[in-house]
TrEMBL record:
Protein name: Pyrophosphate--fructose 6-phosphate 1-phosphotransferase
Pathway linked to the protein: Carbohydrate degradation; glycolysis; D-glyceraldehyde 3-phosphate and glycerone phosphate from D-glucose: step 3/4
Lineage top rank: taxon: Bacteria
Subcellular location: Cytoplasm
Active-site residues, Swiss-Prot/TrEMBL: D202 (proton acceptor)
Annotated source species: Bacteroides coprosuis DSM 18011
Functional description taken from the UniProt entry: Catalyzes the phosphorylation of D-fructose 6-phosphate, the first committing step of glycolysis. Uses inorganic phosphate (PPi) as phosphoryl donor instead of ATP like common ATP-dependent phosphofructokinases (ATP-PFKs), which renders the reaction reversible, and can thus function both in glycolysis and gluconeogenesis. Consistently, PPi-PFK can replace the enzymes of both the forward (ATP-PFK) and reverse (fructose-bisphosphatase (FBPase)) reactions.
Chain's gene name: pfp
GO MF term set: 6-phosphofructokinase activity; ATP binding; diphosphate-fructose-6-phosphate 1-phosphotransferase activity; metal ion binding
């Protein structure tokens, strides 16, 4: 593998670990748990893995001899910085338990398990990928593990390789699959443990026991660096409004964190739009008013941050999309029609209220709402060019006001969508340490016979030695939601809390940021240097922890 000078230097970096994981550990059990909602339904679906206690590991002086174990690992879903360090931590953890233990990686996600596509991850391979971005060590995929024939097909290779435990590294849907798989293997008494690790740059897989999902820290720092660069250019040229769409289909954590790091003129938070029952026109007016106020001060430039999933949070649009998801999941005729006929067909076959909204949309946006669904049956909101839609509608609103004598500025636009740019970045020190600890914790969960648990590392705003490692039952995070027109058990997504400290800090400052240009330019991620420069977690996490 050809490496840059930075990669060579990073390869020598030894991620920090909680002190509890540096020797033999003992398990400390908490109270029994229950799901966040729909307790009766979730317990009925997961009788063998429901109600288990939260656990944490504490250091013990007692030495334990562990037999050699074979472990399988899967990277599932979209990439996130730090995935390679989860695998490195898992590898080092099982090797410390017994040097003869082996780690097998299934190629291109869960499909690799079903298709028996794998490779042994040796020390030589692992060492090439320590502290690097991406998922290319084994690749990732989005195959859903939800059918008995998949479970049984996977079991064939698990038995052949003598695998005792399977580690699923993924987001909420991937870990839901891990929970289903753990329950199935437990019910059949197959003796195969399944452990999850919390991944997603979107930041929506978190709760009281999972402080953050890995990759969020790095991705937000990458995006904030580029936003800062744009803002520096924006202030230098003083002639463009930059509409910047950011990753975050189901929650606005990335947009909010980037706003806290860069202080843009406008940041839309989808959860607030939904709470206030704002229409699309309300959002447009909000942005246009700020543009007009800045123009009155002679500032015909600015930045607007837009969460990827905004459209779905506008109540009227959300109702339309929900009906479209159900309609298209059960309709066979739509796909056989040409584009023009599809629009008319939808209007005639959905409710009158939603048909009116659908008919009012620009044809391009309406078309995007009926494109192929994602693997979960939902509209692919990343394909909707919300940044262009909003800037066009703002331009139209400003022209209306110009005709009425309410606006006399200039409005030139630039558009950006930051998504893939942050998914495979070299992990920040925080993510490098956090991910390595998550993988190491997974090895301890395996060693202690746990299944149906997600690896948990908490207290991460403190020095790494003080981090708390343990596990949380995946069923504890689950509720029932509609997918493909049916109610399914899934991990509940964590949304931006409008009464939470991060949003409150943003809300208290945004009026000032809107009119008085107070841009921050974070610069690139720093890997070497003072702790206060290199090891800081996100503003979101610091504020949530009261720091």
């Amino acid at each position: 593998m050809i490496k840059s000078a930075l990669q060579i230097a990073r390869a020598a970096y030894q991620p920090k670990l909680p002190k509890a994981l540096k020797g033999s550990v003992k398990v400390v059990e908490g109270e029994k748990t229950q799901s966040v909602a729909d307790q009766k339904e979730i317990e009925g679906l997961f009788p063998n893995t429901y109600g288990m206690p939260v656990i944490k590991f504490e250091k013990t002086d007692g030495a334990v001899d562990f037999p050699a174990i074979n472990v399988g690992v899967i990277l599932s879903g979209g990439q996130a910085p730090g995935g390679h360090n989860v695998i490195s931590g898992l590898f080092d953890g099982i090797k410390k338990l017994n040097a003869d233990s082996k780690l097998y990686g299934f190629i291109l996600g869960p499909g690799g398990l079903v298709d028996h596509n794998y490779k042994e991850l040796t020390a030589e391979i692992i060492d090439d990928y320590r502290n690097t971005g991406g998922f290319d060590i084994i690749g990732s995929g989005r195959t859903k593990l939800e059918k008995v024939d998949q479970f049984e097909k996977g079991l064939e290779i698990i038995k052949k390789l003598g695998i005792k435990a399977l580690v699923m590294i993924g987001g909420d849907d991937s870990n839901t699959n891990a929970c289903v798989l753990a329950e199935y293997y437990a019910a059949k008494d197959y003796g195969v443990q399944v452990i999850g690790c919390p991944k997603t740059i979107d930041g929506d897989l978190k709760n009281s026991m999972i402080e953050t999902s890995f990759g969020f820290d790095t991705a937000c720092k990458v995006y904030s660096e580029v936003i800062g660069n744009i803002q520096r250019d924006c202030k230098s040229a003083q002639k463009y409004w930059h509409f910047i769409k950011l990753m975050g289909r189901s929650a606005s954590h990335i947009a909010l964190e980037c706003a806290l790091q860069t202080q843009p003129n406008v940041c839309i938070v989808s959860e607030e739009v939904e709470k206030k029952n704002m229409s699309l026109d309300d959002v447009v007016v909000y942005i246009a008013e700020i543009v007009a106020k800045r123009a009155a001060n002679g500032d015909n430039y600015g930045t607007v941050l837009i969460p990827e999933g905004l459209i779905e949070f506008i109540p009227a649009m959300k109702n339309l999309i929900a009906e479209l998801n159900d309609f298209l999941a059960h309709d066979d005729k739509f796909a056989t029609l040409d584009k023009d006929a599809q629009r008319d067909y939808v209007i005639k076959n959905i409710s009158k209220e939603n048909a009116k909204i659908y008919a009012s949309l620009p044809q391009g946006v309406a078309r995007q709402l009926t494109l192929d669904r994602d693997p979960h049956g939902n509209v692919q909101v990343s394909l909707i060019e919300t940044e262009k839609l909003l800037s066009e509608m703002v331009a139209n609103k400003l022209e209306e006001w110009r005709a009425e004598g309410k606006y006399n500025g200039k409005f030139s636009r630039q558009h950006h969508f930051f998504g893939y740019e942050g998914r495979c970045a070299a992990p920040s020190n925080y993510d490098a340490d956090y991910c390595y600890s998550l993988g190491y914790t997974a090895s301890a969960l395996i060693a202690n016979g746990k299944t149906g648990y997600m690896s948990s590392v908490r207290n991460t705003t403190a020095p790494a030695a003080e981090w708390i490692a343990g596990g949380v039952p995946i069923t504890m995070m689950m509720n029932m939601e509609r997918r493909h027109g049916e109610m399914k058990p899934v991990i509940q997504k964590a949304l931006v809390e409008l009464d939470g400290a991060p949003f409150k800090k943003f809300a208290a400052s945004r009026e000032d940021w809107a009119i008085n240009t107070q841009y921050i330019y974070p610069g690139p991620i720093q890997y070497f240097g003072p702790t206060e420069v290199c090891d800081q977690p996100t503003q979101t996490l610091l504020l949530e922890q009261g720091k």
